[in-house]
Amino acid sequence: MKEIMLVCNAGMSTSMLVTKMQKAAEAKGMDVKIWAVSLSEVDENVKNNNINLIMVGPQVKFVVKKLKEKFEPEILVTDIAMIDYGRMDGEKVLSHALSMIGE
Question: pLDDT tens across 81-100, in order?
Answer without folding.
Answer: 999 999 999 999 999 999 99
